[in-house]
Amino acid sequence: MPTVHLLDYVAGNIRSLVNAIEKLGYEVDWIRSPEDVPKAEKLILPGVGHFGHCLTQLSQANYLPAIRKHIDEGKPFMGICVGLQALFEGSEEDPEVPGLGLIPSSLTRFDDQDKSVPHIGWNDANTGGKVMYDLRPDSKYYYVHTYKSPYSKGELEAKGWTVATGTYGKETFIGAIAKGNIYATQFHPEKSGVAGLRTIRAFLTGSGAQNLGADLPSGGMAASREPKDGLTRRVIACLDVRTNDQGDLVVTKGDQYDVREKGADRNVRNLGKPVEMAKKYYESGADEVTFLNITSFRDCPLADLPMLEVLRQTSLTVFVPLTIGGGIRDTVDTDGTKVSALDIATMYFKSGADKVSIGSDAVLAAEEYYSLGKKLFGNTAIEQISRAYGRQAVVVSVDPKRVYVPKLDATRHAIIKTDFPGPKGEAFCWYACTIKGGRETRDMDVVELVQAVEAMGAGEILLNCIDKDGTNSGFDLELIRQVKGAVKIPVIASSGAGNPAHFEEVFEKTTTDAALGAGMFHRGEYTVKQVKDYLQEKGLLVRQFEG
Ligand code: 1PR
């Protein structure tokens, strides 16, 4: 088997990259010290998290001269995400830390005045009609980043670079860049489905470096580079997973969080096997797959958590982002050892997860945040994981419940006027946060929670709604609008999806960044593809699965 060398210097989901490379028929060899770098023929530098953190680690371990030498010798080099950013002179994210300086430009933060930041989702890598590592104009690629290299037409091209761009809001940024033996992508090719595997293959076989920058055959690719927002509407499939009464790990689905059958025996609903269902949703075009381990208590050692195996198996065949939630908090293992939330997250990332989702622990941390006068001490699970893996890797899953009140000043909580009055005709409501899968309601409203977790470093909100869960009656648009108005980070609308029109409604009537469905997919009422076809028919931009 031909070999490619991967530089192992940061934490993060490297497993997916290894899986992608192995799927393409290559073997991965690890570079674990600068002395190993010269043995690499083809070298890949992956990277997640902070620019400064990654570059400092590379610099302290003395990797930078070895990488420079590899590149100067004309050997193939590929950088991914922060691995691309490392090629620049520096980044606004950590101004005091220099990059390799091979590309004469620096990275700046996305403007969050008119859009959510980080930029998360599937966007273009538009080569402007040039040949570049098999990137295609009709394909979409998975991005997740807060800092970007702004694109200025012709500038880098004049210095011999070939550039592919994406546009988010009004900002056009560098999605991929190549010159000679160097290729780097801001997007994650290992998470970009078949389109991503194709561009990794072009690097591995060396075909990508050939004809680089040549004009594509006429009609082959759109020659224009009109700055047009290319971010697609993200559709996520969610699998609530738990052990049933027979001890099998199954996908289940509740009605307002009750996952037991209505009959006398009250069995846990069994809708299928997690790994198989995740693959089915990937092949139907799901942009992400989320697993929520809804009974996150455990009686087995942490290392044997069944969800770790689910992730390992899923990441072999599913090349889109995987999120895992449930039980991510400081805990004590079965042998009495203390285990931090960061340790648990690390195990999940190493098993193939791209993001972890935190529920109950986030509410408790937010309560403490307010009780301490909105001060942060860096010790919450959110802060620790976000510091180590980057904000984009931390999702907070919110489980709110409606509380109806008769008037606008009935409580100190963030009250809205609702079009759906309560049982006693109440025209107002607020959303109370719950923990432990909705079993315990706290004196905290959703606005308080999402603002606190944003301050702690969460990168995204997974916004469930207990009242809507499993009802097939559509998303709670009022809740989504309230939360979207409270934070800058992306929000995933969840709970209530019953048909494709509900997805159109939530995208048209709110500014949600993504929408998630569960029951309607599990019960086979609609496929992800049907949802996407419907959105496309209605003129909304979506990514379709490439076979
Ligand atoms: O608190 O950090 O251990 O995390 C536990 C996680 O498990 C939380 O994210 C919490 O939302 C989830 N959870 C706990 N109990 C349940 C339950 O159903 N009994 N599931 C549960 C939450 C909600 C959504 C669902 C949507 C869409 N599931 O993920 O998939 O509501 O459903 P629909 O489209 O069928 O309406 P921690």
Automatic annotation (TrEMBL):
Enumerate the residue ranges of region (PRFAR binding).
359-360, 397-399, 469-470, 495-496, 518-519
Q: What is its EC number?
A: 3.5.1.2
Q: Does the keyword Heme belong to this entry?
A: no
Q: Which CDD domains match?
A: GATase1_IGP_Synthase (cd01748), HisF (cd04731)
Active site residues per record: 81, 188, 190, 240, 399
Q: In which pathway is this protein known to take part? A: Amino-acid biosynthesis; L-histidine biosynthesis; L-histidine from 5-phospho-alpha-D-ribose 1-diphosphate: step 5/9
Q: Which GO terms describe its molecular function?
A: glutaminase activity; imidazoleglycerol-phosphate synthase activity; lyase activity
Concerning SUPFAM superfamilies, the annotation shows: Class I glutamine amidotransferase-like, Ribulose-phoshate binding barrel
Write out the residues that bind substrate.
327, 464
Annotated residues for binding of L-glutamine: 81
**Top-rank lineage group of the source organism:** Eukaryota
Keyword field contains Disulfide bond: no
Give the UniProt record's GO annotations in the biological process aspect: L-histidine biosynthetic process
Q: Which reaction does it catalyse?
A: L-glutamine + H2O = L-glutamate + NH4(+); 5-[(5-phospho-1-deoxy-D-ribulos-1-ylimino)methylamino]-1-(5-phospho-beta-D-ribosyl)imidazole-4-carboxamide + L-glutamine = D-erythro-1-(imidazol-4-yl)glycerol 3-phosphate + 5-amino-1-(5-phospho-beta-D-ribosyl)imidazole-4-carboxamide + L-glutamate + H(+)
| Family matches, as InterPro entries | Aldolase_TIM (IPR013785), Class_I_gatase-like (IPR029062), GATASE (IPR017926), His_biosynth (IPR006062), HisF (IPR004651), IGPS_HisA/HisF (IPR050064), IGPS_HisHF (IPR014640), Imidazole-glycPsynth_HisH (IPR010139)
List UniProt keywords, sorted A-Z.
Amino-acid biosynthesis, Glutamine amidotransferase, Histidine biosynthesis, Hydrolase, Lyase, Multifunctional enzyme
Pfam families recorded = GATase, His_biosynth
Q: Which residues form the Glutamine amidotransferase domain?
A: 6-193
Family statement drawn from the similarity comment of this UniProt entry? Belongs to the HisA/HisF family.
Its biological purpose is as follows: IGPS catalyzes the conversion of PRFAR and glutamine to IGP, AICAR and glutamate. The glutaminase domain produces the ammonia necessary for the cyclase domain to produce IGP and AICAR from PRFAR. The ammonia is channeled to the active site of the cyclase domain.
Q: What is this protein called?
A: Imidazole glycerol phosphate synthase hisHF
Its taxonomic placement starts with: Eukaryota, Fungi, Dikarya, Ascomycota, Pezizomycotina
